[in-house]
Design a protein that fits this description.
Number of domains: 2
Strand order of the largest sheet: 7-6-5-4-8
Shape: globular
Strand content: 25-35%
Helix content: 10-25%
Largest sheet: 5 strands, antiparallel
Distance between the termini: 85 Å
Order of helices and strands: HEEHEHEEEEE
CATH topology of the largest domain: GMP Synthetase, Chain A, domain 3
CATH class of the largest domain: Alpha Beta
CATH superfamily of the largest domain: RimP-like superfamily, N-terminal
CATH architecture of the largest domain: 2-Layer Sandwich
């Protein structure tokens, strides 16, 4: 069993006990990145608590040989999609995909994730409904796209009606 699998087995129940979902684990270059999320987001206090608990458990079980730095964070607004479960939970969202070099067609795609199954995804790439099918093995990297709303005019609060007119007295 590899490092990622051992760390997943160790931290997943701790995250569940703390009311968060383990989103991803990555280990590269002496850094262990644990990404967690929950409905409504994860605040800094929760990140601090999770970091302390995971650090204690990792020190006790020692699943990683040598020195490493633990980083705990939320996946962010434009979250990476690496696992099938990431794609499944993002169905209906806009995503960007970069395919591996051997894949025919455009390597950089953007569109709405229409479906995510056992073997791959269906991506609607234009307004005409053109769909591109990709196997998970053909995807080099993918992430969701956060779409910013319109910028409010200076001095206006979003969602508020324009300035009200004063009543004219005779």
């Amino acid at each position: 069993m590899g490092i990622i699998e051992r760390v997943n087995q160790l931290v997943e129940p701790i995250c569940a006990d703390l009311g968060v979902e383990l989103f991803d684990v990555d280990h590269a270059g002496g850094i262990l990145r644990v990404t967690v999320e929950r409905e409504g987001g994860v605040d800094i206090g929760t990140i601090s608590l999770i970091t302390r608990e995971l650090s204690r458990a990792l020190d006790h079980d020692d699943p990683i040989p040598g020195r490493y730095t633990l980083e705990v964070s939320s996946p962010g607004l434009e979250r990476p999609l690496r696992r099938q479960s990431h794609f499944v939970r993002s169905v209906g969202e806009r995503i960007k995909v970069k395919t591996k070099p051997h894949v025919e067609g455009e390597r950089r795609l953007e569109g709405t994730l229409a479906a995510a199954g056992d073997d791959g995804i269906q991506l609607v790439v234009d307004d005409n409904g053109t769909t591109r099918s990709l196997a998970y093995d053909d995807i080099e990297r993918a992430n969701t796209i956060f779409e910013w709303g319109p910028t409010p005019k200076p001095g206006k609060k979003p969602g508020k009606a324009s300035a009200t007119k004063k009543a004219v007295h005779a």
